[in-house]
Amino acid sequence: MSIKFDDILLQILDEFIADKKVDIEKYCKKYPQHKDAIVSKFLTAEFIKKSFQEKDLSGEQIGDCIILQELNRGGMGIVFLGIQPALSRLTAIKVLPPSFSNDKEALANFQEEAKIIAKFNHPNIVPIYSINNEKGINYISMGYISGLSLRDIAEKLQDNKQLHCIKATVIKDMLQEPFSNDKDISQKNITLKRDSKFWNKSYFQFIATIGVEIADALSYAHQNGISHGDLKPSNILITSEGIPVIVDFGLSKNVKKLSSSESKEFLGTLVYAAPEQIKENIINEKTDIWSLGATLYELLILENPFRGATIEKTVAKILKSCPPTLRHYNRKIPLELEAIILKCLEEKSKNRYSSAIELSNDLNNYLESKPIKAKPIGIIGRLGKWVKRNPVKFYLTIVIFLSILVTIPLSFKYTLNKWKRVADVFYDKGQYDMAIQQYNKVLRFSPSDIQILRYIGNSYYYKGIYKKALLYYERALTIKPSYPTLLLDIGDVYRDTREFDKAIIYYKQAIKLSPQERIGWYYLGNVYQGKKSYDEAVYYYGRAVLLAPEDFDVIEAMLSVIEEEKEITDDEEIKGYLRSINFNEMESYLLSEVLKKAKQKNR
Amino acid sequence: MRLDTQTQSLIVSAKLNNEEALNKLFAKHQSKILRIVRFRLSQGMRQKLKLQSMDIVQEVFMYALRHLKDFEPKSQGHFLNWLGKKVYHYICDRLDYVSRIKRKAPGGEVSIDEKFTPTDETNQIQMQIKDDGPNPGQSAVIKERDQLIDSLMDLLEPEQRELIINRNLEELTFKEIGEIHEKSEDAARKQYCRAFKKLIDLSEDKLMPIIIEESYKHL
Question: What is the pTM (predicted TM-score) of this model?
Answer without folding.
Answer: 0.51
